């Protein structure tokens, strides 16, 4: 069995559960240095993807990611909507003509995160979701290059995501709404970094079930 687009629903459900289970904590983070709507934005996006997932079953990964990106882009407001929409659209382009494997996923995710950097005009160290997603993309590429076994890869990605999230606490925000607060935002974790970490943990959890990942080795 390989990881197929028919499993997208599983990933969406796991990500939704993770966001819902931690909604209060994330909203507190976002209220402190943002405008408090980050959870609602993500929930809207995940509900849209859930509704779309049934129609992705028979598609290749390239087409599925592109459709996911377009629907996120058109239904989710805020910075996170356009950034995650950009991620999926770029991943769709990168997966063109490719089967899912650890290497193709690492390449596609790397290109997706690169597109987010351009879209947000931002990079690591600016107290955003990219402080989780960039190190995760780098670690994934490295792991794929070394052909590591999936359980090891997932453990590494979760460790890196946790460190990335925590690293935003002491950063001065230079992008997004938090940047208006300047130094007053120091001491608070970025909400987008936390939800990025939560969704990576959720997706790893699904892939960590042995029946779900044999095609990704
Ligand atoms: P908005 O800030 O427009 O209300 P959300 O609340 O949904 O959108 O998302 C806020 C999150 O988006 C922030 O916590 C941060 O992680 C991320 N973010 C905001 N601006 C940028 C940017 N320019 N580049 C990367 N990430 C950003
Ligand atoms: Mg917001």
What overall form do the CA principal axes indicate?
A: globular
* Proportion of helical residues: 55-70%
Specify the number of helices: 10
* Count of the separate structural domains: 1
Corresponding CATH superfamily: DhaL domain
- Provide the list of bound ligands, each named once: adenosine-5'-diphosphate, magnesium ion
Query: What is the oligomer described by this structure?
Result: single chain
CATH topology: Serine Threonine Protein Phosphatase 5, Tetratricopeptide repeat
Radius of gyration: 16 Å
Strand count, sense and barrel status of the largest sheet are: none
Give the beta-strand count.
0
Separation of termini? Answer: 11 Å
How large a portion of the residues is in β-strands, by DSSP E?
under 5%
Backbone structural class = mainly alpha
Instruction: Output mean pLDDT.
Output: 94
Model regions low in confidence, pLDDT < 50 over at least 5 residues: none
Q: CATH architecture, please?
A: Alpha Horseshoe
């Amino acid at each position: 069995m390989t990881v197929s687009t028919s499993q997208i629903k599983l990933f969406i459900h796991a990500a939704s559960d993770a966001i819902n289970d931690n909604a209060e904590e994330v909203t507190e983070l976002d209220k402190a240095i943002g405008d408090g709507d980050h959870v609602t934005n993500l929930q809207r996006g995940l509900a849209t993807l859930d509704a779309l997932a049934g129609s992705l079953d028979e598609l290749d990964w390239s087409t599925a990611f592109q459709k996911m990106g377009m629907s996120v882009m058109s239904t989710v407001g805020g910075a996170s909507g356009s950034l995650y929409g950009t991620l999926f659209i770029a991943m769709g382009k990168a997966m063109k003509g490719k089967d899912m494997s650890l290497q193709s996923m690492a390449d596609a995710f790397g290109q997706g995160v690169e597109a987010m950097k351009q879209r947000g005009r931002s990079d690591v160290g600016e107290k955003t979701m990219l402080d989780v997603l960039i190190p995760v993309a780098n670690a994934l590429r490295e792991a794929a290059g070394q052909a590591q076994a999936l359980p090891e890869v997932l453990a590494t990605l979760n460790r890196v995501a946790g460190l990335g999230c925590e690293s935003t606490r002491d950063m001065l925000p230079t992008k997004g709404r938090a940047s208006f607060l300047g130094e007053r935002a120091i001491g608070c974790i970025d909400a987008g970094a936390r939800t990025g970490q939560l969704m990576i943990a959720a997706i790893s959890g699904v892939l960590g079930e042995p029946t779900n990942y044999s095609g990704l080795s």
